[in-house]
Write a structure and sequence with these properties.
The complex is a heterodimer of chains A (281) and B (376).
Chain A (H helix, E strand, L loop, with lengths): L1 H10 L6 H4 L17 E12 L2 E12 L3 E5 L6 H8 L7 E6 L3 E2 L5 H7 L1 E4 L11 H8 L6 H6 L4 H13 L15 H14 L4 E5 L7 H14 L4 E5 L3 H7 L2 E6 L2 E6 L1 H6 L1 H8 L2
Parallel strand pairs in A: 3-8, 3-9, 6-7, 7-8
Antiparallel strand pairs in A: 1-2, 1-4, 4-5, 9-10
Helix pairs in contact in A: 5-8, 7-8
Chain B lengths: L2 H9 L3 H22 L10 H26 L7 H20 L12 H5 L15 H25 L4 H20 L11 E2 L3 E2 L2 E2 L3 H27 L1 H11 L1 H6 L4 H27 L1 E2 L6 H14 L5 H20 L4 H15 L3 H17 L7
Antiparallel strand pairs in B: 1-4, 2-3
Classes of the chains: A alpha/beta (281), B mainly alpha (376).
């Protein structure tokens, strides 16, 4: 297998001129390559259909390294399907999804994509209910996640510090030994965000982070997400316009599986096509 | 880590485990002693009872094996009896070959049923089973490999829930039909029986039976500790995470299939060991052990004892089998009804089994006693 793989790697058309790029940028396997215009995620021409219904229709989306992007759109616009495609849950019928310039996500499985550096928060908060807050974070922690190493591993001091740090960030320090099932809805959302942080991902996909949150919790979440941008690329899918307005720098509007508009919040709000979709004809 | 250190850290927060292992030690010492009392004494435990207890202990190992996959990993296997029976058959093959020329037909090489079928030579898959070490290896390897193949296909195709339960049931049923056939070379309908001795000790002798019982207690304790080590490790936490939120586990970077497969194979190996302890004590292994009913009964033991605690599985296995021995003696016709009713009642009223009931009662006592209390 090994020599064959090498040969294949050698024959790849996108690598033909790699030798010329030496010194300017080198491609390291397993490393995210954002050297081209600082783009970290490329979603190009993606189409997904379920029984003839096109959930995504020739979707093009580019996310920059470290940006905070909000994605809005009416129900059924394909927001969640888009996340499914990026995280490997759904395979696109057509189109490509690249993480950096070199990693083709359509050929990778969920756990490989997660390990490569894309974290995902579900719409419904999904944590491990029978585990304590601490254990939830421990499980999410970036580590060797193969079976045998996991059997013998123990938490070391550095990892404990990292967990402490994240518990502070999501304000769950006092609940560290509580079972996750006993947390409030908002706290579960935060725990899930905390779990994403433990993975140390390059890209965070966050699906409706403030659903079911109180006003204060919402404000705190906005702070949290804007604070994360910069070190991470954060993609937020949200319905709540006030919330989007409070955090958004760039907004993408999806409609019927296609990008309808993209730009700053005020650009988007004044876009006649967007007004038509949102307010009806 | 020193063995004592390992033991301590494994059992540190496991009160139920400590109680269970203490009881097991008492049983392991007391039963053989009581057996040595004169038969006229009221405290005398007959060798028959000792063997019966040994049988319960092998069932307890099987129950721990199922608890690992069902209680912790959420895979309801309705075919775990298959792995138990395969381990039993591997042991049975060793015991058959120990008979040598003492069989009815006096053939030094071939077991009686093969002579009866007019076979001329030993089939290749019987080679090596005259060696104890080889047979013991097969006791673990055969169930392990079958579980690996089965699990590899099932978990990769993401077969879960009821569908998985049904195909595990089909697996054990298919094996039962296969083992019923004489051409398979495992004694067909009658299975393997008429064993004479094990490692040179006669199986009819009381001392051998007592020794088998003591080995069973030891193996049960070791299996318990191993299982406890596994569920206390990070791997154990991942496995529970897979049970509770499989997608979440996948999206934080765990290859869920590998974890399921690992636990499933470990469980099958443990079930095989249980089968190997069972066969010399009951003196027979036949295709009936593959019967789907056996596997379902096994699930009932674990459900009644309490899932996801390990000692609950042991408790369930021993209690239900004691009840079975009693009922099938006293009122043979109602046993199955009693078992069914028990299962229904436990599922409705005691979702966490007897162990759950015990901890609930303890919590209630604590609540009235002191304000310091955790919910749950």
């Amino acid at each position: 297998m090994k020599p064959l793989d090498k040969l294949r790697d050698h024959m790849r058309r996108d690598r033909v001129f790699d030798f010329m790029a030496q010194g300017r940028h080198t491609t390291i396997p397993g490393r995210v390559d954002t050297s081209h215009q600082n783009t970290i995620l490329y979603v190009e021409g993606v189409t997904v259909s379920f029984d003839g219904f096109k959930a995504l229709n020739d979707l093009n989306l580019y996310i920059e390294d470290g940006e905070l992007r909000c994605i809005i759109g009416p129900n059924g616009a394909g927001k969640t399907t888009m996340m499914d495609v990026i995280t490997g849950k759904t395979r696109p019928d057509e189109g490509t999804v690249y993480f950096g310039q070199t990693m083709d996500l359509t050929g990778m499985t969920e756990y490989q994509i997660a390990t490569a550096g894309i974290g995902r928060k579900f719409q419904k908060p999904t944590v491990f209910p029978e585990h304590s807050v601490l254990e939830n974070l421990e499980l999410a922690m970036q580590a060797d996640k193969r079976v045998w190493p996991t059997l013998f591993t123990r938490l070391n001091g550095e990892q404990r510090d990292r967990i402490d740090e994240v518990m502070d960030t999501v304000m769950l320090h006092d609940q560290s030994t509580l079972r996750a099932a006993q947390l409030s809805h908002g706290q579960k959302q935060w725990l899930e965000i905390g779990m994403l942080l433990m993975q140390a991902p390059r890209v965070l996909l966050v699906d409706e982070p403030i659903a079911g949150m109180t006003h204060q919790e919402t404000e705190r979440t906005a702070e949290l997400l804007t604070g994360l941008a910069g070190q991470h690329s954060v993609v937020v899918v949200e319905h709540d316009m006030a919330f989007v307005r409070s955090i958004a720098r760039r907004v993408t509007v999806l409609h019927e599986g296609h990008v309808l508009a993209e730009g700053s919040m005020s650009d988007v709000q004044n876009n006649p096509k967007v007004i038509e979709v949102y307010l009806g004809e | 880590m020193k063995p004592s250190g390992f033991l301590l850290s494994t059992l540190m927060h496991d009160r139920g485990g400590k109680i269970f292992l203490t009881l097991l030690t008492i049983v392991a010492v007391a039963v053989p002693l009581l057996n040595m009392l004169p038969e006229t004494s009221a405290m005398h435990v007959s060798t028959y009872t000792v063997t019966l207890l040994g049988k319960y202990l092998s069932f307890a190992i099987l129950a721990i094996a199922l608890d690992l996959v069902w209680g912790y990993c959420g895979i309801l296997s309705l075919g775990h009896g298959a792995f138990f029976a395969l381990g039993g058959y591997a042991m049975g093959m060793y015991l058959m070959r120990q008979i040598g020329d003492r069989g009815v037909y006096g053939d030094a090489e071939l077991p009686d049923f093969m002579v009866f079928l007019d076979w001329q030579s030993l089939p290749w898959y019987w080679y090596g089973f005259d060696q104890f070490w080889f047979a013991m290896l097969m006791v673990m390897l055969v169930p392990g490999i079958l579980a690996f193949l089965f699990g590899w296909f099932a978990f990769r195709s993401r077969v879960t829930g009821v569908y998985l339960s049904i195909i595990t049931q089909a697996l054990t049923y298919a094996l039962m039909l296969a083992f019923f056939r004489n051409e398979m070379g495992f004694g067909g309908n009658n299975g393997l029986t008429d064993f004479k001795d094990i490692l040179g000790f006669s199986l009819q002798q009381d001392s051998t039976r007592i020794a088998l019982f003591m080995v069973s207690t030891l193996v049960l304790a070791l299996v318990y500790l191993l299982a406890r080590f596994v569920v206390n490790s990070k791997l154990g936490r991942v496995v529970v995470a897979v049970r509770d939120a499989e997608d979440r586990a996948r999206f934080i970077g765990y290859k869920v299939e590998s974890y399921k497969l690992w636990v499933f194979v470990l469980s099958a190996v443990l079930a095989g060991i249980a089968g190997a302890l069972y066969v010399p004590q009951v003196g027979i292994i036949n295709p009936g052990e593959f019967s789907p009913l056996n596997s379902i009964e096994l699930v009932v033991w674990v459900a009644i004892g309490g899932r996801g605690t390990l000692y609950g599985a042991v408790l369930g296995a021993v209690l239900v089998n004691y009840a079975k021995t009693y009922f099938t003696g006293a009122f043979p016709e109602i046993w199955l009804f009693a078992l069914g009713a028990l299962f229904v009642l436990v599922t409705i009223f005691l979702p966490r089994g007897l162990v759950g009931l015990l901890s609930k009662m303890k919590n209630k006592n604590n609540k009235t006693g002191s304000a310091h209390e955790t919910t749950g």
